[in-house]
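Whiteboard transcription, Tuesday session. T.W. wrote the C-alpha cells on the left side:
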C-alpha cells in the first residue's frame, strides 16, 4: 500500500532518524583541514595520470606541488585541533586515510609516472605502499599506549612518519626539472612531435640512474630502492623520531 503524505511526514520527522548531513555537521574545523590534505592527494594522483596521457610536464609538476601542499594541511590540522581543543576518533581515522592517499599512494604513482615501470620496480613500489598502510594502522592501534607529555601529546613516532615521503617526491621533481626523467620534456626531441612513444620516453637513458638486469627479462631501476628504504624505515619499531 502506498504511504500517504501524512505517513511520510511522520516518518521523516522521526526523532530517532539522523538529521540530514549529520556526518558533515559532526565535523570539527580540524577535520575540514584534514580533508584539504586528502584533496591534495587526490589531485596529485589525477595530475600524474593526466601527465602520462598528455605527456605534458606541466601536469607532472602540478602533481609534485600537491604533495607539499598536503604536508601543510597535515601540519595545520593538529594545530587547529589543539587550538580548538577538539579531537575525536573520527578525526584520527580521517587523518590517517588522508595521509595514506597523499604520502603513500601518490608518491608511488609519481614514481611510476617518472619511469619506474619494470616488474621489479612495481614490486618495490607496492612494498612501499603496504609499509605506509601498515605504519598508519600500527599508529592508530598503539597511540593510546604511547608515552605522552603534560599536554597529552605523543612524545615520539615509532618509525619515520609517512609525510617524510615528501623527500622522495623532491628527488623526482629535481630529476624531471633537470631532464633526468622524461624524454618528453627534452627540447632536443621536439622535432618528433608533441607525442613521443613511451618506449622512447622511458628508455634507460631517460630514467635517472639507468637500469640493472638481474636475469634476462627482469630489470629494475636502482633509484627505485629509495622507496624500499623509506618503507622499511616507516615500519621500524626500533627507530624513534621525537614528535615536534
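and on the right, the sequence the group agreed on:
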Amino acid at each position: 500500500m502506498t504511504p500517504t503524505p501524512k505517513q511520510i511526514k511522520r516518518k521523516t520527522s522521526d526523532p530517532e532518524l539522523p538529521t540530514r548531513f549529520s556526518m558533515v555537521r559532526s565535523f570539527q574545523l580540524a577535520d575540514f583541514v584534514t580533508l584539504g590534505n586528502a584533496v591534495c592527494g587526490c589531485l596529485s594522483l589525477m595530475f600524474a595520470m593526466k601527465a602520462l596521457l598528455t605527456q605534458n610536464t606541466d601536469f607532472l609538476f602540478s602533481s609534485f606541488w600537491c604533495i607539499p601542499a598536503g604536508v601543510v594541511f597535515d601540519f595545520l590540522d593538529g594545530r587547529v585541533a589543539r587550538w580548538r581543543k577538539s579531537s575525536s576518533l573520527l578525526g584520527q581515522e580521517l587523518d590517517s586515510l588522508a595521509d595514506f592517499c597523499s604520502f603513500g599512494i601518490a608518491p608511488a604513482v609519481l614514481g611510476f609516472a617518472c619511469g619506474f615501470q619494470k616488474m621489479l620496480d612495481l614490486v618495490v613500489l607496492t612494498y612501499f605502499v603496504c609499509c605506509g598502510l601498515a605504519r598508519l594502522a600500527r599508529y592508530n592501534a598503539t597511540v593510546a599506549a604511547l608515552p605522552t607529555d603534560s599536554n597529552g601529546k605523543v612524545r615520539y613516532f615509532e618509525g619515520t612518519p609517512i609525510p617524510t615521503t615528501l623527500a622522495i617526491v623532491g628527488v623526482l621533481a629535481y630529476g624531471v626539472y633537470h631532464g633526468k626523467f622524461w624524454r618528453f620534456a627534452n627540447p632536443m626531441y621536439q622535432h618528433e612531435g608533441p607525442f613521443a612513444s613511451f618506449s622512447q620516453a622511458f628508455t634507460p637513458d631517460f630514467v635517472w640512474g639507468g637500469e640493472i638486469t638481474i636475469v634476462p627479462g627482469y630489470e629494475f631501476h636502482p633509484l627505485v630502492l629509495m622507496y624500499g628504504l623509506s618503507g622499511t624505515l616507516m615500519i621500524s619499531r626500533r627507530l624513534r623520531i621525537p614528535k615536534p
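Someone added at the bottom: Residues 82 and 102 are 23 Å apart (CA to CA).
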